[in-house]
Amino acid sequence: MTDLPIFSHAPDFAQDRSPQADQARWMRRCLELARRAAGQTAPNPMVGCVVLNQGLVVGEGFHPGAGHPHAEVFALAQAGDRARDSTLFVNLEPCNHTGRTPPCTEAVIKAGVRRVVVGMVDPDPRVSGTGIQRLQQAGIEVEVGVEAAACQRLNEAFIQRVTRQRPLGLLKYAMTLDGKIAATGGHSAWVTGPMARAAVHQLRSTCDAVVVGGNTVRRDNPQLTSHGQSAHNPLRVVMSRELELPAQAHLWSVEVAPTVVFTATAADPARQERLVAQGVEVVTLPALNPRLVTEALYQRGCAAVLWECGGRLSAQAIADGVIDKLWAFVAPKLVGGDAAPGPVGDLGIRHMGQALTLERTTWRTLGDDLLLEAYLVQN
């Protein structure tokens, strides 16, 4: 963290110079720092911290991952004696308990910080307001809720993991304008253009695991990496009931990124041994379904799980209640054909009144393609 820049003066903000606007800008800087560790902090949140003294940045830091010091510790270490009588900005309430690292509240108090600006209260019941209370008891002025919505969006996967005890499930698919994810012959490369594909690679870099079914491995031989968009690659997950998988596949190259195959008790032991010999982890579940796979990934510490599967497995994941958010790419192409597959299989919906609805929808263009981001309404 010592290589983070120290500003010799406050950045020249040309617009609103009010105290509220300055606070929002410094909180956005915290979010920018926090994103440097996207995809690498689970089960911990992404946190960035800025220390200001008389309007000058004297320390910055971010949390690089579980087991490492928190953002406040890095920022205060960089600030040194200049942290005394300073204002500390952090996007998440400082922790007040001893886990893998000591409480950040004590580091803040010891450094002599005068004021702390917090983006949002930590939903973790081990913290949840006690960090703020500890700082106030020590005579430190605390302000909470600056850029709160942006702070919550950044750590939505962490919040879900803590409050609902399961990872945030994201379903991604790319389809033509007439709703097809492949041609009638099964060919699916490429539905969308290079800008959309780069967005998917970036999305993977922010997730802890990416899930496909055996059909996707057999048909597409995917890599499921971030393709250089980030140094981080997610855990690659395959669901295969009988392990009828190709002997050679990109996913078996575990030196690139780890791969785990979830299977059922009826799987062929010889096929399992072949995968294990290539360095692939094979996990047998009592039943192979998205709910149990999601539970297993939660136990591994995952906070964000990306589903990049075919229509049948997508429908199962939705039906099992493990999908929270959609990334749907729409390409200006037509395929046609009754046999061409769509992105979501049968959900048992027989009339429009039963349709699942989405909320908080946003659209953006990526080259010639459209991307819809939305949240599935949870019943």
Number of helices: 11
Described by the principal axes of the CA atoms, the overall outline is elongated
Give me the secondary-structure category.
alpha/beta
- What is the straight-line distance between the termini? 43 Å
Helix content: 25-40%
Element order, helices and strands?
A: HEEHEHEHEHHEHEHEEHEHEHEEE
> How many E strands?
14
Radius of gyration: 23 Å
Beta-strand share of residues: 15-25%
Task: Please mark out the parts with pLDDT under 50 across 5 or more consecutive residues, or reply none.
Answer: 1-14
Mean pLDDT figure: 92
Strands of the widest sheet, in order across it, are 10-9-8-7-11-6-12-14-13
Q: For the report, how would you describe the main beta sheet?
A: 9 strands, mixed
Overview of the molecule:
The structure is a single chain. With 379 residues, the chain is an alpha/beta fold. It has helices at 19-34, 71-79, 104-111, 130-137, 148-154, 156-164, 194-205, 214-220, 269-277, 290-299, 311-319; strands at 48-53, 56-62, 87-92, 115-120, 141-144, 168-176, 209-213, 235-239, 259-264, 281-285, 304-307, 325-331, 358-366, 369-376. The strands form two sheets. Strands 10-9-8-7-11-6-12-14-13 form a nine-stranded mixed sheet, sandwiched between helices. A five-stranded mixed sheet has the order 2-1-3-4-5, with helices on both faces. Helix 9 (269-277) links the parallel strand 9 and strand 10 (281-285). The longest helix is centred in the N-terminal third of the chain and has 16 residues, at 19-34. The chain is elongated and about 70 Å long. Mean pLDDT is 92; it is low at 1-14.
